[in-house]
Amino acid sequence: MENKMPIISMEELTRIGQELYQQLGASPEEATTVVDLLIESSLDGHDSHGVRRLLQYVAGIRTGKIIPKAKIEIEMETPATAVLNGNWGFGHVTAMEAMKIAIQKAQEASVGIVTVYQCNHVGRLGGYLPMATSQGMVGIVSNNGHGGDLSMSPWGGIGRILPPNCLAVAFPSDHEFPVVLDLTTAVAAGGKVRLALERGEQIPKEWLSDAEGRPTTDPTVYVTDPRGSLQPFGGTVGHKGFGLAIVLDILSGALSPAGCSRMNADVSGNALFVQAIRIEAFKPLEEFKAEVGQFINYVKSATPAPGFDEVMVPGERSYKTRTHRLKKGIPVEDETWGEICTVAKDLGIKL
To answer: Which of 4, 36, 67, 95 has the fewest CB atoms within 10 Å, counting from its CB?
Structure first.
């Protein structure tokens, strides 16, 4: 599919994205943060949370949902914790600030935890973890939909009751890449269903059920009434994905003023749980990284199963995709690129 899409250089996407957001009132720093994180997601192969989201945030600014230059405030604080109010600015900017504060606290207290509310969509959670691993720390981020954004069924139930709450955890290693687990508690994120819809593709029947609870391969069921629901990961043991979604909802929602998921929430966005753990509070960093590296080598020593070329650990596929796309450019869907060009021209941005 990539070969059929226009391939756009990282530099061109960065320039256009930054100019778009600044034309609509974002500061240069905000525009840079958001665009960089979107491009990082695309470079890592997470296209559902990458460049295709650029216009989502343009629309958010125009409707007043995203408030450029919003002041991020610490509302409660201890030496190791903080509660952060994003005041409905760019979610990416708020999440970066939360991780920055968590790291600062971990440098002093060995552990830093920040919860966040009144925060817009933050994109891919794994994008915030390099801040921690580059500082010799374990990074952890989870989210819920700020009470709303309901699109997933509970295990054993029908209908949109939960968001596909996400979790990302990263560990530094002595390999070229950190170990990064970045997952949604649904079989697939809603963004991947929308991406399949844009590409005119069917989806695996395990991803989605229609309004009657029947599995479907039609991605239009996700966006047309009566709308279907994402399914918790795990297949016949989907109670595991459902259970993790419950835990992440409580961590992100109940520990912040946003609250847990509920019907008819006033707003939707992201509530966050952000944690940094200073590894040298437990052992020398290089010793830890070497241990993780040896563990990676051990896991990868397994004989590949039929249909697989090699065993890859969490974070490795993204690393390889990034290496390729840094050389070749980022594939963008025709429809998405056309829409970006149209908005850019309307704002007088040179293409």
So the answer is: 4
Dihedral of the alpha carbons of 162, 97, 115, 117, in degrees to the nearest 10: -60
In this structure, how many other beta carbons lie within 10 angstroms of the beta carbon of residue 215? 13
User: What is the domain partition of the chain in residue ranges?
Assistant: 8-69+336-351, 71-186+233-301
- Helices 28-43 & 54-63 angle (0-180, nearest 10): 150
Q: Residue 109 corresponds to which tokens in the numbers above?
A: 């207290």
User: What's the mean pLDDT in 146-151?
Assistant: 96
Assigned CATH topology for domain 71-186+233-301:
Ribosomal Protein S8; Chain: A, domain 1 (3.30.1370)
Answer yes or no: CATH 1.10.1530.10 is held by domain 8-69+336-351.
yes
5: which 2 tokens?
Answer: 């899409």
Q: Residue 157, by phi and psi: left (phi above 0), alpha (psi -120 to 50) or beta? A: beta
| DSSP conformation letters of 122-174 | ---GGGGSHHHHTTTEEEEEEEE-TT----BPPTT--S--B---EEEEEE--S
Query: Are the beta carbons of 275 and 168 closer than 8 angstroms?
Result: no
**Can you say whether residue 64 is alpha, beta or left, with left for phi > 0 and alpha for psi between -120 and 50 degrees?**
left
Confidence bin at 351 (pLDDT 50/70/90): confident
**pLDDT tens digit string along 243-279?**
999 999 999 999 999 999 999 999 999 999 999 999 9
| Residue type, position 159, single letter | G
Q: Provide the H-helix boundaries in 134-284.
A: 190-199, 239-249
Q: What is the pLDDT of residues 299-329, one digit of tens each?
A: 999 999 999 999 999 999 999 999 999 999 9
